[in-house]
Structures are given as C-alpha cells and as structure tokens.
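# nightly structure sweep
# worker-07 picked up a monomer target from the shared queue
# config: single-sequence mode, recycle default, output format = structure tokens
# input follows
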Amino acid sequence: MTETKSTNNGLKVIAGLLAAALIGTLIYTVSLYNNKKETTKKLEKEKNLVVEDLNNLKSDYDRAISESESANAELVEARNKIATYIDSVQQMKADISALSRYRRQVRQLTKEREYLLAQNDSLRASNTLLAMERDSTQVALEEQSSFTDSLVVQNTQLAKVVETGAALSLSKFTAEGVRERNSGKIVSVSNNSRATKLQVCYTVSANNITQPGAKQFYIQIKAPNGNILGENAVAAKEGDEEGEGSTSITYSKASSFYYENTSLDVCDFVEKGAADFPEGRYNVVVYNQNLSEIGSTQFSLR
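# output follows
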C-alpha cells in the first residue's frame, strides 16, 4: 500500500516535470517565432529602404538624362545598372548579409551619382556657353552679312551714280543735206536733188569723270519713208545681271572719235546712193556706246 502511494507520487512528479518542460518548450518556441517574425519584418523594412534609395538614385538619373540635350552614355549606363539592382533586391529573400552588401553598394552608387551628375552639369554649362557663343557668332555674322549687303547696295548705287555722271552728253546737235563742191568746200542745201551727202554734226560736252580714250556713237537717219539710210547695220548689247535686257539698234553710221574730257566737235556724213535723197522730213538720232539715245533732231529736203 505504501509502495503504491510512493509510485503514484513519483509519477505525479515526473508528469509535473514533463508538463513544465512542455510549457517551457512552448514558451521558447513562441518566443523564437516572435523573434523570427520581428527579424523578418525588420529585414523587409530594411529591404524596402534599400529599394527606395535605389529608386531615388534612378530618378536622379532619369531627370538628368531627360534634361540633357543629347544622350549621355555614362548616365544611361549608370541608370540601367541601378534598375538591375532594384530588380535583384526586390526578388531576393531578405538576408542580413545580402542587405548589408546592397547597403554598401547603395553608398558606392551614391558617390558615383554625385560625380556623374556634377560632370553632366559641367558639360551642360559648357554646352550652354557654346550655344551662347554660337548664337553670338551667328548674330555677328548676320550683322556682318547685312553690313556687307548694305555696302554692296551702296557700291552698286555709287557705281550707277558714277556711270550716270560719266555718261557723255551732247551740247549741240545738227543735221542737214549738203553738197561738196569741186574745191572740197561743203555747202548746205535744202533741195533733195542737189544734196550729195547728209551731214550730222554734234558737240560732246566736257566731262571730267569719263575715262578718256576712243569712243563710238551710232547715228541713225530715217528717210521720210521710214527706211534707215547709210550702212543699215545693227549694234547689239547683251543683258546684264541686274535684269536689264538685251537691246539692239539699226544705225546709219558708226561715229568714232578720241575723247580727252574736253568739249569736242564731231561731224560725220552719210553718202547718197544711186538715187537722189527722197523729199520730206528726216529723223536723226544719236546713240552712245550703251545704245542709249543722247540726242535727236529733224531736217527736211524738198
């Protein structure tokens, strides 16, 4: 009886010890689970912070690339590398050693970002300065071109003024029928049957601007019937770059003389052909070397 009671007491003690051990084990297990859960939570938070830092770095590169006028290969490469790190961190299982490694990598990438962005800012500043210098040069070139065009216009206008001022003019111009006597003396006649020549005389005015030298005018004599007497030859002038078209005249006589800037009297003759000069009014025009009319007159034979 006494042994049975002693055995039961032993069993109760053992059961108590087992119960205590089980409770202790449960408490330890729950504590470990809670600690692991807390550690996992902290690791996930740390992981999210690493991803956030990487995203911030990537955003800095995105902004720098978008603000650049031309693609910067180094910035693009750095941004793509960070994007790869972001994917790796997001897919990895939270681990203290891995997170520590990525943390160190983030610090290294931050330093690299500061260097690359500073370099990019310097490049942008240089490009801005170059653009300003280019614009300034372009403005200067446009101003120079405008000034040159203005000079060309002024020179062209001046050349025209000089050309106009240098053009020879006539101060006197006469035309009539004449007869040459046996003595060689020339006398004026008004009868068409007596006239053996048509005489055209003009006086070239003095002009100090004109280049001295050999000159040539063209005399055109139209008979009463409209026919051009004398040589009946053609003088032509080609058009120029300023849009003045070509022109030509039919002349009776090419009148040549040597001009020395002083007033000069010139006379030329148109000979009679096989028939007498017709009766009526004759129109006479003198043209200069540019085929511009510089004088005209009329006379009659009866």
